[in-house]
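Q: Got a minute? One more chain.
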Amino acid sequence: MSYLKFDKNLLINLDQSLPKEILRTNMAGSYHCTTVIGCNTRKQHGLLVTPIKEMSNDNYVLLSSLDETVIQHGAPFNLGIHRYQNGAYSPNGHKYLREFNCDTIPKLTYRVGGVVLTKEKVFVAHENRIMIRYTLLEAHSATTLQFQPFLAFRNSMALCSENSAINTSFEETENGVSFCLYEGYPRLYLQFNHKPEFVYDPHWYNGLEYIKDMAREEPYTEDLWGPGYFQIPIKKGESIIFSASTEPVKPRGFRQTFEKEAQNRTSRTSFFNCLKNSAKQCYLHDNDKDYLIAGYPWFKVIARDLFIALPGTTLAIKHRQDFERIMDTASAALIKLMDTGETDKTIEDLDLPDIPLWAAWCIQQYYKFTNPQDTLKKYGALLEKIINHIIDGKQNNLYISKDGLLSTDGSKTPVTWMDAIKTKDFRAFLTAVKADGKSLVVTPAKDEVIVKSARNIPGVETSMANLINVYDILNAKYLVLDKEALAVIEEVFA
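A: Always. Here it is, folded:
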């Protein structure tokens, strides 16, 4: 029995189906995320979203979506769905949906007249590669599948507008084509296990809307590039496998790769297995180092979140080796910080006062799930180093008070077990000053507390008074600043 199964009645009801989102990662930083019916509702959605380290530490949407069309007797039936301006949905492919099932991998079943078509997706582990398998279960006449990609090539926190800087050319590759819309981006390879006919028919598709961003009063409209479409005939019982990747791959291996990835998935036959599968989505393997991402689609590796989540995402699901690999990476960064004062480039907020305590707590959980001998051998030296570091008064803003308790000073910089100022409190402040929407908060000087509090609130940006410009101000719906920040602005721009 699948714990994730929805029938036709739910799928065709957009009020019920659009809030249900699905996420799959490659456990190396890239991800696929959209709604269960395939309609993107936020700017971070996409079939292939990947970090591009050469450009920044952010994620980038390369392939936004792929529309499928069933053609019989010359009549097209488009299975895609997008929301355009004024709330218009086109095409309305969700009306052909009959079932969503995720026993192991996400599977949609469509019925178009006498045609029954299934669509299954896998994200290849540790590769920037999404694969989709289409299987024709029923057909009473000759059938052709048409595939139309929508390309973005943009930061996942931004939106794309029609422009003349786009590179509209393409290159042929084995059983497909590749694109690179802008300089600095990797090429995107779109390939099939069967040789397709590619019809170059370029268009801008203007005015797509993302309702989740609209609800947050963020920019929510964008234009996407459609370079054309692929066509492949398909027979009853046959499967067509699509691959989108940042590297060219051999189509003859598509079937084997897809089946291998599907077999490696945890069956979602229980609530525990669903949690186990979700936990592993946040694993991150990068350059022989292992981390936990704080959350998709916009968080990175954050020290406090890593240590708090580590036992539950590893030991609790009987993945002891994963705990050890991630802990080895995090502890090495922590030791380096204690020895040299140098922070880690990947793990954020490692220098906060409570981080060594969370590391010690992780060791305690390891002890509970294993045994004293293994714990002492593996982490005894690290625990001793943490204790001595604190006793010697070397830990940032953490000291032993006269009563023998560990203390921290929050008089200048608020310090809590959660990020301070708390995001909730900062959101309440913005509401109080009637800045509920896209806001620019200006500080007189660098203020890590405000930056960290605001970064989790969609639509809110921060800047120092001496760095703002006319564009920043005009791009915001609300401008929030105090007297000190105003004084700096007057001094700098007088």
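A: The CA atoms of residues 83 and 89 lie 4 Å apart.
Q: Perfect, thanks.
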